[in-house]
Amino acid sequence: MRKAMLTCLLMLAVFAAAPAWGDALRLSVTTDLEASGLLDVLAPEFKKDMGVDVQVNPGNLGTVIQEAMSGGSDVVFMSDPARQERLVARGFGLQRHEVMSGDFLIVGPDDDPAGAGGADAAACLRAVAASENMFVSRGDGSATHEREKELWKATGLPLQVGKTTLTERGERMTFESVRPEGMAGFLSIGDGMGRALDAAEEKRAYVLTDRVTYVRYKYGRPQGLRLEAVCEGDGRLIESYGIVLVNPEKQPHVRLDLAEIFARWLVSGRGQRIIADYRLFGRRLFLPDSKMAQSRAVPASGQ
């Protein structure tokens, strides 16, 4: 009863702060979130409740961070808590708010020729590296690529570490590259998740993928995807999503009032229920408010 009363009071506070109809919130999100379709549900419900339009601007991780630093958005919604905390530490963002969790998977040929299957991600990668099978790396400095590098470092294998430079939308990005020493089957493509999955399918290779893109490619297109999950459920595969409100002291034109309303609504019972109930092709993608920390991963069945 007390919990219900607190939820009602929170929603009353959110509604009381609602601005005039017609205002728009600028929300920068990473491409995996945009592709999940979740914002296509959240934004209309937020508009219905609060009378505020949401302008969703998708981009890669670097673009979303740059939008926050330049004042091109009022709120950023992304994974990679460490980078979000750096935004706050540098004064470009206010406090980070935990919203939900998703996860990564290591997928490969359905007959798992490397014998890599299991719940330990580092052991899975060691098995792939010891086999004659290929591993496809995005190699693009994305959040998925960053997680892949962390997992390779966790294997304890000798690694070749270098620097890679890519140009995207006219901007040069330089980032660390990591690969197992002597692994002839390691293929870095410097491209997005969809291309990496297609390359792994073509070459009967293994690849680290976010669940959103995997579900879209396996269940959302006529040709499907033969790749199957060989490793999931490891705590190191959890992907935490949060929002950071852009600091108006750095960018005075940002709408902190709208950003605060959105933040309160998103972490309220109303926003969290929408996230909990959301499915893509019948598969669950996210768990609200970091509950994945207790359940370890989104259920493999997606139910």
TrEMBL record:
Keywords: Signal. Pfam families: PBP_like_2 (PF12849). InterPro entries: ABC-Tungstate_binding, PBP_domain. Residues 1-22 form the signal peptide. Residues 27-268 form the PBP domain. This is Tungsten ABC transporter substrate-binding protein. The lineage of its organism: Bacteria, Pseudomonadati, Thermodesulfobacteriota, Desulfovibrionia, Desulfovibrionales.
